Amino acid sequence: MKAPKDRQVVLLLAVNGMFVLAGALSGTFLNIYFWKSRQDYLMIAWFTMAQQIALGLTFWIAGKWVKEGNKMNALRLGIAVSGLFYLFILGTGQNAVHYIWPLGLLLGTSLGLFWLAFNVVYFEVTDAGNRDWFNGWVGLLGSMIGILGPWVSGWLITLLHGEKGYRLIFTMSMVIFGCTVLLSFFLKKREVSGQYDWIEGIKRLKEVDGTWRFAMGGLVMQGIREGVFSFLIFLLVYSATSQEAKVGQFMLITSAVSLVSYWAAGKWFKPAYRSYGMLVGAIIMLLVILPLLWKVNYTTLLILGVGTSLFIPLYMLPAISVSFDLMGTNRNNAEKRVELVVVREISLMVGRIAGLLIFIGVLSFRQDPLTVTLLLLVLGMSPIGTWVFMRKIMKSRQPAA
After folding, report:
1. Contact yes or no for 111/55 (Cβ under 8 A)
2. Which of 17, 134, 154, 357 is least surrounded by CB atoms within 10 angstroms?
């Protein structure tokens, strides 16, 4: 497909790619860096908790800025704060574990600012004629970065024997964030669009037909798994191998499988099969955890990673589509796109925090391998809950505005 004539679309794609690259280089190994200073699951969980609290609050508070003010400045500030985060990591070094809460809040704020502004600008700079082109390149670049970025980082950390390698990848991320800020100044200022509604989420919960209640409930269930799995799997791989290179290899393999499975799902997975596909995907994502009951090693973790990568599109694509389809069902929803993006993210945040609280509560008493595995199984059931909430919405066709 030919590239669009609008240079702004290409620039936004480049900004997205650079932001994702900077995060991929360091993000996978950030929790492992903390873990090497202090082997404490609860510390990593609290760091993730701080991120989620800041992420949700930033989406909600910055929504007014993005809708009524200069959304491009929100985008730039998010990128700049990400670079500042890695500057603090470099400055504190191994003592960073003593600043888990402020660092988590800082990272969550940066991600909230960037992704809220990016999602809104994406809707504004693309249209029916170039949106497929844009989405295709976002997916391709994201997949390639996800495959190569962590692998390169793991190789560099191993080559430079630990601390020097970590400082190198953190510095690389900081520099890329700085370059991304500069590139973002070539993006034009966007027009404002109406007044921001602070309580849109409460209004949606009170709607008579309950459609958004079910959608939000499904998003909460989706978040329960994400909150813990987002960091725990990589920690388990490192604990089982004690090699950053193995973590990079794990990411390379699972991301490559994910690239193929998402491509196949995009080609053959039709909207009519969303409900059945989500249920099948959710069940298989749970079943691939079972080998960890036998033994937690690189092989069983790879079974979990590859199995999840193969079948997560069946679950994730319908889960994403439901909320975004609802945003486009009528003119009012389209005009409330900022608020509804916020509602979606806060619903996910509530689920992630709930999952983290369960994880923290249980591991405050026991941290043996069997307990961790059983927790993975319990939290891994939440995608089935997503299907329970969303199945009726998926079976009814949502008209496009």
Report:
1. yes
2. 357
What Rg, from alpha-carbon coordinates, does the chain have?
20
Alpha helices by DSSP H, listed for 38-162, are: 41-68, 71-92, 100-125, 131-159
CA distance linking residue 212 with residue 235, whole number of Å = 35
**3-class SS of residue 368:** coil
pLDDT of 237-268, one tens digit each?
999 999 999 999 999 999 899 888 888 887 78
Judge contact between 190 and 71, C-beta under 8 A: yes
Nearest in space to 96 (alpha carbons), one of 152, 19, 154, 32: 32
CB 300 within 8 A of CB 291: yes
| Helix, strand or coil, per DSSP, at residue 70 | coil
For residues 116 and 132, give the distance between their C-alpha atoms in angstroms, rounded to a whole number: 21
What is the C-alpha separation between 10 and 188, in angstroms, rounded?
A: 12
Specify the length of the chain in residues: 401
Using one digit for the tens of pLDDT, what is the confidence trace for 109-146? 999 999 988 888 887 777 656 666 776 687 778 888 98
Q: Are 220 and 350 in contact (CB under 8 A)?
A: yes
Q: Where are the domains of the chain?
A: 1-196, 199-401
Q: What tens digit of pLDDT does each residue of 349-396 get?
A: 999 999 999 999 999 998 888 999 999 999 999 999 999 999 888 876
CA–CA dist 348, 223 (Å, integer):
5
For Cα atoms 68, 71, 77, give the angle at the middle one, nearest 5 degrees. Answer: 130
- Give 399's pLDDT tier (boundaries 50, 70, 90): very low
Amino acid at 392: K
- Give yes or no for a contact between 313 and 381, defined as CB atoms under 8 angstroms apart: no
At how many degrees (to 10) do helices 382-395 and 211-241 cross?
A: 150
Using DSSP, state whether 316 is helix, strand or coil: helix
Give the integer Cα–Cα distance in Å for 275 and 283: 13
The angle at the Cα of 166, spanning 243 to 369, to the nearest 5 degrees, equals 40
* pLDDT of 401 higher than 50: no
* Reported pTM: 0.89
Question: According to CATH, what is the number of the domain 199-401?
Answer: 1.20.1250.20
**How confident is the model at residue 356, as a pLDDT?**
96
Mean local confidence (pLDDT), 311-338: 80
- 199-401 shares the fold of 1-196: yes
Q: Position 172: which residue type?
A: M
CATH of domain 1-196: 1.20.1250.20
